[in-house]
Specification:
The complex is a heterodimer of chains A (about 325) and B (about 130).
Chain A (H helix, E strand, L loop, with lengths): L24 H30 L7 H4 L13 H25 L3 H31 L4 E4 L4 E6 L8 H4 L29 H10 L3 E8 L5 E3 L2 H8 L2 E5 L12 H34 L1 H5 L3 H26 L1
Antiparallel strand pairs in A: 1-2, 1-5, 2-3, 3-4
Chain B lengths: L7 E2 L4 E2 L3 H25 L2 H4 L2 E2 L2 E2 H21 L7 H35 L7
Antiparallel strand pairs in B: 1-2, 3-4
Helix pairs in contact in B: 1-3
Classes of the chains: A alpha+beta (about 325), B mainly alpha (about 130).
């Protein structure tokens, strides 16, 4: 490595001139960081596997959870995540191109490719924010039983999922949002669901072509749909209406699924976000000519390593969250 | 930092003329792998979902293997581990692989045990 300040000791072993494994100090430390960060991510992903194996017969099917594409209505599983994956791989490519241009000391090209990388990262973070918003908002709505299990609804004729709004009755009952200021005991209620439990139950009884779908996965790999009698019996267990997902309730199924979704994609999204911030800093350094004066673009290479690592992690998140 | 780039992938079957060309080649390869994954994920062929190997669907095996293939090319070509010294590469790659394999082994076995306790034990949770 070319030192910026020369005191005459850099090239000796005790002066730090020794480069074990042919990598400079900064690059080596970036690799150490990446190794430790990889272990953190694998801790998350393996604990996801742990919870999933624990509830292997009732775990939500990802294809049925992530079915939306922005600006399009309908059922499009996976397309959007595939697009996000492609964006991230693409921004990884522009990053390598920036590193490559850096080796050849071509400042203009480094600027262009760094810029494209930042744009790619921004698109990815934006897409992830949209995924979160869609996931939190929810899709069809469901009921939760006393044991915390989720009951979803299916139209018996079409076999399609039925939304709460499709069959719920509007009853002349008054529902007041509970606030901490009104109760004797400190208890706050989140935003109210669009239908009360009573309205959903009455609506279900009045609509004969609606069936309940439980969390249990049958041998065909689909969720079990109960018949009408079983559904009516199961309905008695319901205690709560759930719309959307948060850390406590999750209309898509096991609440652990939502918890891991928020933690793993959130932690990854945070990495992408910090990657974008670091890239922006380096981008301005390149424009200012810092590395031109320093005589090498190793800094670009180091942030490049981090950026590729973020892509690498996403490949695994994509597989274990969306595919498997 | 003028070090040499190794320009071969697929064990020397495919040799590129320049580093930039290799980058685009790897991108095309990674895109194809991702496209295959997504296509399989949407189609879910019966042959692959109803046959098991070591207790896991063949489809899931394919997904995991393709993921490792992608990870290999990202690390080797984008993070240019291919151009690093062998000792650096090995210490970076095998240490986490060893630890992660151990973690996977121990946690998934434990989870399967808990699954059986929930299933066969005198404990109701699915109500």
């Amino acid at each position: 490595m070319d030192a910026t300040v020369t005191t005459g000791t850099e090239e000796s072993v005790w002066g730090g001139g020794n480069r074990p494994l042919g990598a400079s100090y900064g690059k080596m430390m970036m690799w150490f960081f990446i190794v430790s960060d990889a272990l953190t991510f694998s801790g998350f992903l393996v604990s996801y596997g742990f919870s999933r194996f624990k509830f292997i017969e009732t775990w939500p099917i990802a294809d049925e959870v992530f079915t939306h594409v922005p600006f399009f209505h309908g059922n499009y599983p996976m397309y959007y995540v595939a697009f996000m994956t492609f964006i991230l791989i693409m921004s990884s490519v522009t990053m390598v191109l920036a590193v490559d241009a850096g080796h050849k000391m071509m400042q203009k090209k480094v600027i262009l490719y760094m810029f494209l990388t930042i744009i790619g990262g921004a698109i990815f973070v934006g897409s992830q924010a949209w995924e979160w918003a869609t996931f939190i908002k929810g899709d069809h709505g469901a009921l939760e039983t006393k044991g915390g299990r989720i009951l979803q609804f299916v139209n018996a004729e079409t076999g399609q999922r039925a939304s709460l709004a499709d069959f719920s009755k509007t009853l002349p009952e008054e529902r007041v949002k509970h606030e901490s200021s009104k109760g004797v005991w400190f208890e706050k209620e989140g935003s109210q669901t669009s239908f009360s439990l009573n309205e959903v139950v009455e609506g279900f009884k009045a609509t004969p072509n609606i069936l309940i779908r439980t969390e249990t996965i049958n041998e065909e790999g689909h969720k079990t749909v109960l018949n009408r009698e079983e559904s009516l019996a199961k309905l008695k267990d319901a205690v709560l209406v759930v719309e959307g997902a948060n850390l406590i309730h999750n209309e898509y199924g096991s609440r652990l699924f939502a918890d891991f979704f928020f933690f793993i994609t959130g932690f990854h999204g945070f990495h992408v976000f910090s990657g974008v911030v670091i890239n922006v800093i380096i981008f301005f350094n390149v424009i200012l000519g810092t590395y031109e004066r320093r005589g090498h673009y190793e800094m670009v290479e180091k942030v490049g390593l981090y950026w590729h690592f973020v892509d690498l992690v996403w490949v695994f998140v994509f597989t274990f969250f969306y595919l498997v | 930092m003028a070090h040499e780039h190794k320009l071969e992938i697929f064990r020397g079957t495919l040799k590129f003329k320049s580093n930039v060309q290799k980058i685009w080649g790897v991108l095309i390869f990674l895109s194809i792998v991702t496209a295959v994954e997504v296509a399989l994920g949407i189609a879910k062929p019966q042959v692959l979902t109803h046959n098991f190997f070591l207790g896991m669907k063949l489809l899931n095996w394919i997904f995991i293997i393709l993921t490792l293939v992608k990870a290999y090319y990202i690390a080797w070509d984008f993070m240019h581990l291919r151009d690093e010294k062998k000792a650096l590469r090995r210490s970076i790659v095998w240490t986490p692989i060893f630890l992660i394999c151990y973690l996977i082994f121990i946690l998934l076995f434990e989870a399967d045990y808990i699954y059986n306790v929930y299933k066969d034990g005198f404990l109701a949770w699915n109500f």
